[in-house]
Structure formats: structure tokens, C-alpha cells
Design goal:
Layout: H1 7-25, H2 38-41, H3 45-56, E1 68-72, E2 87-90, H4 92-109, H5 111-127, H6 129-140, H7 144-170, E3 176-181, E4 189-199, E5 202-206, H8 217-225, E6 230-233, H9 240-255, E7 263-265, H10 274-279, E8 284-290, H11 293-302, E9 307-311, E10 317-320, H12 326-338, E11 350-354, E12 358-360, E13 363-365, H13 367-382, H14 385-392, H15 398-406, E14 412-415, E15 419-420, E16 430-431, E17 434-439, H16 443-446, E18 454-460, H17 463-477, E19 481-485, H18 489-502, E20 505-508, H19 541-545, E21 548-556
Helix pairs in contact: 1-5, 1-7, 3-6, 5-7, 5-9, 6-7, 6-9, 7-8, 12-13, 17-18
């Protein structure tokens, strides 16, 4: 049986082929330009996108899906902007029933048609990337350029990457095969075998507040392209970016001749705990979640009927042994700690430095001088409010503010956090990073995650001791990133060995324009699935292959 090409597949076949090449070559490639420049997107694109975003504010979000009763409005912008978008509040059983009914025709369409339609959804979202970026900015607290890049272009790249991996896995085998086996003197045994890609069932994506699109798109599109209808449950404070996503996905599905209920939005009322209700529904067979360790662990333990993919919390660690570019190291780490006020799951928290200091291109630096150098770099980036807020963005929730208050009681501040008035948004909640000095014995403090603009410089006995602490803390609590600075190849090798043992991605001697808390689609893996911080990687074969099964039929030839 030969799959009939779908018009959307033909339209996007070149993009898919290029993505398939990119995931094998692992070099730089991006399908969606990350610069919001008018030279790239046109003179009116930014204004048109902002106007489209503003048209949603204070109104009923235009989404026609089944089971809708009342409406809910739960978002509060970190920038102080009044959002008050009201979303349809559907019933769980109606959502799941509608999604289930949409599955058979989508399954039977085959991998090519599904890939083509998914790429058309991404193309439609790309056409509305400024609209999407504004929604990400004002719900997550990211500054606009970061929202455009991470919440728009890079999120689309990660989605395309997931589609490419899934397509490769689905087409690893032929759709049909002829089988022949000799049978002595008689005629050979001949069979015709057909292999069907069968989706697991309804998929659930549980969105997060900080990166509502970047963290949700891989699971959403990995499930959809493998034949599973997807229910998208946004974080209550970041509904709009995923509502826009669902809106355009449903439009494309309907235009392509498929049931738009293949993608559904599930906003929740305050205190409803809708994610848990959906995650335990018997028809839900896949769950994707980004957020707290506590809830991720709960999902893994309780959503037993589903394949559960979680990205949780960890202790991202930097080991500083020596450097041949002290100024570059400080600048690089300063940017890492400042970007989005440290509200990234990849931002470094624990910076391990020998108490005796380190050797640098500027001579020996004491522990205090190293700490002061990093603090000065952060201070320089945040000194001018107008420029600083374009890096820090705004604080996403009260929990971050509570931790900033709590951390003042646990150690001596090398750099204190400051309140900053945002020049464009008077209601924005902005705090600069703090850096706190600790001793190696203070494991009760640095052995837990302090999500937000909080990091620790920790005095260790030696670099070997630092690596021991990396192994111990990451081995127990997990991490998504680790970094090392050293001019000694033996130290770099030892750090790499430690990173392999605890399953964390390692960056070495970053002093330029590459930062430990940023990763590139098609080249860098995000999370490894090899430690407690995440049970899956974005994106590899394991992330997509368990979202479908192969069911065969065979007949005598």
C-alpha cells in the first residue's frame, strides 16, 4: 500500500527534508528567522502583530469548540497590563469525546499527510509570530525580543524538530512488504504484510507560565504528527499564547479536511485542578508536562495509563577551575544570570569556586575577586533600567519574590537584588539578580532549587571537591545544564566524565556569544532524560517513538 501524498505534504516537503537532514548532521540550521527586523518580516509585521494581540484583550477569545459552557479569565501580566481575556471553559468528558472521535480519520491519513498538515500549522503560526510574541511577552514576563525568539521562532524550530524526529520514526519501516519462505518441494509460503502506525490515544499537554510555547510545542506536535489528538491545558497565568496556537491549528486542520477537534484548548477555573483530572482520564494516553518536581513526580506516579514526559527542576551547576579569559567568563556568566531574571529551567544556580581562588589571564584571582567579577558583570547589565529590563524582563509570580526575600536570610550577599521601575510599564514587577556566598557545607541551602534571579557562589576545597559536589547534587536532584571553566585539559575531561555519570549536558569555557542556558534546535539536546530533572530529552527518538505503535496485518499473497 503506497501512501497518497497530501497537498500540504507536497507544499512543505523541502522543509521537512531539510529538517530531517539537520537532526542527523547536528549543525546550525533554523527554519524560522529569529530577528524581528522589518527587513526580515516586513515593515508592518510588528504593528500588525501587536494590534492582533491587543484585539484579544478584554474580550471573549474566538474559539469554537465543543462542550463550552461558561468562560474563565485567570491571567495577570507581570508587566501590569490588564489582560482580562475570557476563554471557553469546556467540560472534560466533552473534550475527550470530541478528541477521540477525531482520531480515526487522522490516524488513517498516514504520516505524510499528518506531517504536511503539522508543517502548515507551523507556517500559519509563523505568519502570526508577532502576535504570538506579544502574547508570550505579556503573560510570561519575558522582554519582547526574548519572547519573539524563544516564544516564537525558537519554539517553532523545536516543534519542527519534533515533527522531523517523529516522521523519521514512523517511516523507519515500509508500509507494506512481501514475505516469501521456501517450503521444501512445494510452493513457497508467500504473505503480503501491511504495517500501520497506530496512535496511542488522546494526548494532554500541560503548559507552564515561563515558556508557554517553547516548552509545549515539542510535545504538542510530536503527539499530533504521530496521530494523537491533543488537549492543551495552559497554565492559568499564560493561556493566551497557547489559545492562539490552538486557534490557528484548528483553522489549518479544518481547511485541510480534518476534524479541528484534533487540537482542543482546556483553560481551567481557579482551583479547579483540571490538569490532574485530565491526566488521570482513562482515554488520555500521553501526558507532557513542564514545571515543578513535586507535580512532575505526581504525574509519573499516578498517570499510569499514559506515557508521561516530564521536565522538572534541577540544580544547574558551574565549576570554575581556571580561565584564560577572566573578563569574558564574567561577562558570559553575568549574562546567563541576568537573562529573564534567571527564570529559565537552564539558568545556573550553583557556582563552585575553590576557596583558594583560581588562575586567570589577569593573574591569580581570589575567591572574593571571582565572585566580585561575576557580580560586577551582572551589575553592569542591569545598571541602566531602560537597557536592563530588556534583559531581565519581569518577575513571573509571587513565588519568585518570596524566594528573593527568603534568600536574604541564608548567606552574605555578594550582589543584592534591586527593585527596578520599568520605563515603559509602570506596573511591571522587576527585580535584578542576587548572588549569595555560601560554604560547601551549606548543602541544605544550595541543595534545593531557588527558581528565579538567585545564584550562589560556593567555596570548595579544590576543583576535585567541586566535581564531587556536582556529582552529589546533580546525582540526587538532577540538572538540565552544567558548565566548567578550566585551562587544564585533564580538568575538562574529568568534568565531562562527571557530567556523563550524572546525565547532564556540559558546556566548557563559554566566554563569547554562546550561553549555558540557551540551546539550539536541531543541534543541542534539551534535557537528557538521564537524571531527575527530566525523564525525556527534547528532542530525540525516544521522545517520539512511544507515542505510537506498529500494528500489522498479513494475508496470503
Amino acid at each position: 500500500m503506497t501512501e497518497t501524498p497530501h497537498p500540504e505534504y507536497d507544499k512543505h516537503a523541502d522543509t521537512l527534508r531539510r529538517a530531517l537532514t539537520a537532526i542527523t548532521e547536528r549543525g546550525y540550521w533554523s527554519a524560522y528567522p529569529e530577528s524581528p527586523s522589518p527587513r526580515v518580516y516586513g515593515e508592518t509585521a510588528a504593528a500588525d502583530g501587536k494590534a492582533a494581540f491587543e484585539a484579544y484583550l478584554g474580550g471573549d477569545f474566538p474559539l469554537d469548540q465543543p462542550g463550552t459552557g461558561d468562560r474563565v479569565a485567570t491571567e495577570a501580566s507581570p508587566f501590569g497590563l490588564e489582560l482580562n481575556v475570557r476563554y471557553p471553559h469546556p467540560g472534560v468528558d466533552e473534550l475527550v469525546a470530541a478528541a477521540s472521535a477525531a482520531l480515526p480519520a487522522w490516524r488513517d491519513a498516514g504520516p505524510q499527510a499528518r506531517a504536511g498538515v503539522c508543517l502548515e500549522i507551523l507556517d500559519r503560526l509563523h505568519k502570526h509570530v508577532f502576535e504570538l510574541a506579544n502574547a508570550v511577552q505579556f503573560t510570561s514576563g519575558q522582554a519582547f525580543v526574548m519572547a519573539f525568539q524563544a516564544g516564537g521562532a525558537h519554539a517553532l524550530d523545536r516543534a519542527l524538530e519534533a515533527v522531523a524526529y517523529a516522521y523519521a520514526e514512523m517511516t523507519r519501516h515500509p508500509g507494506t512488504a512481501g514475505w516469501e519462505k521456501a517450503a521444501g518441494k512445494g510452493d513457497p509460503l508467500r504473505m503480503t504484510k501491511t504495517f500501520h502506525v497506530v496512535p496511542r490515544g488522546v494526548a494532554l499537554v500541560i503548559g507552564c507560565n515561563t515558556f508557554p510555547t517553547w516548552n509545549s510545542y515539542p510535545g504538542l506536535f510530536a503527539s499530533l504528527v504521530t496521530g494523537n489528538p491533543v488537549v492543551v491545558k495552559p497554565h492559568p497565568r499564560a493561556v493566551l499564547p497557547l489559545a492562539i496556537t490552538v486557534k490557528y491549528a484548528r483553522e489549518v486542520l479544518a481547511e485541510a479536511g480534518f476534524d479541528p477537534n484534533l487540537v482542543l484548548l482546556a483553560p481551567e477555573a481557579p482551583g479547579e485542578k483540571l490538569a490532574s483530572t485530565l491526566a488521570l482520564h482513562p482515554a488520555v494516553k500521553i501526558v507532557d508536562f513542564t514545571g515543578s518536581t513535586e507535580y512532575g513526580d505526581w504525574l509519573e506516579a499516578n498517570a499510569r495509563q499514559a506515557a508521561v514526559y516530564t521536565e522538572k527542576a534541577g540544580l544547574n551547576t558551574v565549576v570554575i577551575d581556571s580561565t584564560d579569559d577572566f573578563a569574558g567568563m564574567c561577562r558570559n556568566l553575568g549574562f546567563t544570570l541576568t537573562l529573564y531574571s534567571g527564570q529559565m529551567c537552564t539558568t545556573s544556580q550553583n557556582i563552585l569556586i575553590p576557596a583558594r581562588g583560581i588562575d586567570t589571564d589577569q593573574g591569580h584571582k581570589s575567591f572574593d575577586e571571582v565572585a566580585a567579577g561575576i557580580a560586577a558583570a551582572v551589575g553592569k547589565l542591569t545598571a541602566d533600567p531602560a537597557r536592563g529590563v530588556e534583559l531581565t524582563g519581569a518577575i513571573v509570580n509571587d513565588g519568585v519574590l518570596e524566594r528573593l526575600d527568603e534568600v536574604t536570610k541564608v548567606g552574605a550577599a555578594v550582589l543584592e537584588s534591586r527593585t527596578v521601575e520599568h520605563p515603559a510599564f509602570p506596573g511591571a514587577v522587576v527585580r535584578t539578580p542576587t548572588i549569595v556566598r555560601l560554604a560547601a557545607a551549606d548543602t541544605a541551602t544550595y541543595g534545593r532549587e531557588w527558581f528565579g534571579p538567585i545564584s550562589f557562589v560556593i567555596a570548595t576545597d579544590s576543583t576535585a571537591h567541586s566535581l564531587e559536589l556536582l556529582r552529589a547534587t546533580v546525582g540526587e536532584s538532577g540538572a538540565l545544564t552544567a558548565a566548567v571553566y578550566s585551562t587544564d585539559p585533564a580538568v575538562l575531561d574529568a568534568a565531562e566524565a562527571a557530567a556523563i555519570d550524572v546525565g547532564v549536558h556540559l558546556s566548557c569555557n563559554l566566554t563569547g556569544g554562546v550561553f549555558v542556558n540557551q540551546s539550539a534546535a536541531f543541534s543541542d539536546f534539551h534535557g537528557s532524560g538521564a537524571n531527575a530533572a527530566a525523564n525525556a530529552a527534547l528532542t530525540d527518538g525516544a521522545y517520539v517513538a512511544n507515542r505510537f505503535r506498529i500494528v500489522q496485518s498479513r494475508r496470503p499473497a
